[in-house]
Amino acid sequence: MQNDVLQTVEELRDEMKESLMEMLKIPAVGPDSDGDGEAERAKFLMDHIKTFGFVEIKRYDAKDERTSSGIRPNIVALKKGKTDKTVTIIAHMDIVPEGDLDEWDTDPYEPVFKDGKIYGRGAEDNGQALMSALYAAKALTISGITPEYNLKVILVSDEETGSTYGVDHLLNEGVISPDEIVVVPDHSEEKGKKIVISEKSATWVKIIVHGKQGHAAIPATAINANRVMAKYQYEVDTILHKKFNQNNELFSPPNCTFEPTKREKNVPNTNTIPGKEIQSFDCRLIPEVPISEVKKVFKDKAKEISDETGANIELIFPMEKVTPPGTSEDAEVVKKLKSAIKSVTGIDAKVCGIGGGTVASHFRDRGIPAAVWATSDEVPHQPNEYSVLDYMVNDCKVFVSLVTSD
Ligand SMILES: [Zn+2]
């Protein structure tokens, strides 16, 4: 029986490709990135999926006056199964802006199909998975098969800029319950060979050294903020790596990362000693390391070097993400994904953690075990972003297998 549906998915290959290309012509950039939102794209999708066999297609739009439609659309489409158990697949409609057009070989909003790949902004992120999930429902309907599980496909807005109007809005409305099996196909590890069950915590640190500006020829009259920053950065970096050196093999890399990143512009000329230096750190922490201890290292060292040099080292923590515990490897979503991937591709998928963030953490935060899985070449947000058609078709088969096997 399952083989028939998988064959149907194959037969839908061209239609999936065409549908993705049509959808990618409609920009869906959120207002936080100066776009007009996802309403037009949602209208296209609502119309497109009418015949896919969903018994119910509901809208949970969030108000957002910054868009011309006044809303940020969210679509919840349900395909009924034999039991009351539900597999929920969440994909996002919004995209990031195209970036520098000179970097694109083709128009980001005029999709091109070449060598088995669909090029266009949002092709991989998250258009591919969105179509894979929708076409799983259509393939089941065409084959006349009622799956074991309900298939709930949720298409959200605002994933790229915080999820307030998307996933968080739906969670607040109670649209997703803890007994649903939640798959977020919005990130790929090793081309689908790994299922993501955990995320590192993260904190950004902005360091501002307030020294005293002066002439480079008479340094005694100044406090060189550049030198103080160099010392601080070196010492804090050394302590962090020494102190938090434990590994968690779920993650790659398995250790915490502490990277000095952005350095802001100081004086424009060589013969002035800068009175102010600004430098940022990006820190990603395995679950064993509390953010508070990392912040303490930054604070203690700031006090020590301020006292020693007469400068004032100010710290700002502009972003902090404390991640909830990861999804257990024994969770139903992980077990089902593993067996669906195995049955379609023959791959024994392993679990892993990542340093970046996905909406899966919003579910885990509320006690809903979610897993992240998809197949891609990992080119999201890049110029010449693309989706590999074979991946889209295969992931669709995996989603079919998820709801048809018990
Ligand atoms: Zn995405």
Give a quick set of tags describing it.
single chain, 406 residues, alpha+beta, Aminopeptidase, Alpha-Beta Plaits, 2 domains, 6-stranded mixed beta sheet, 4-stranded antiparallel beta sheet, 10 helices, 19 strands, binds zinc ion
Structural overview:
The protein folds into 2 domains: 2-197 and 331-404, Aminopeptidase, CATH 3.40.630; 201-321, Alpha-Beta Plaits. It is built from 10 helices and 19 strands. It has helices at 2-11, 13-24, 39-48, 123-143, 167-172, 225-243, 291-309, 332-345, 360-365, 389-404; strands at 56-59, 62-63, 71-72, 75-79, 86-92, 112-114, 117-119, 150-156, 181-184, 194-199, 201-210, 214-215, 257-263, 272-273, 276-285, 312-321, 350-354, 370-372, 386-388. The strands form 6 sheets. A 6-stranded mixed β-sheet has the order 1-4-8-5-9-18. It has a 4-stranded antiparallel β-sheet with strand order 13-15-11-16, with helices on one face. Helix 8 crosses helix 10 (389-404). The model has no long low-confidence stretch (mean pLDDT 96). The structure holds zinc ion. Zinc ion binds next to helix 4.
The CATH superfamily of the largest domain appears as Zn peptidases
The ordered H/E elements are HHHEEEEEEEHEHEEEEHEEEHEHEHEEH
Write down the overall mean pLDDT: 96
Strand residue percentage: 15-25%
Which structural class best describes the helix and strand composition? Answer: alpha+beta
Q: How far is the first residue's CA from the last residue's CA? A: 13 Å
Which sequence of strands runs across the widest sheet?
1-4-8-5-9-18
Bound molecules: zinc ion
Number of helices: 10
Q: Which word captures the global form?
A: elongated
Total number of beta strands? 19
CATH fold-level name of the largest domain: Aminopeptidase
The low-confidence parts are none
Largest sheet: 6 strands, mixed
Tell me the helix content.
25-40%
Number of separate domains: 2
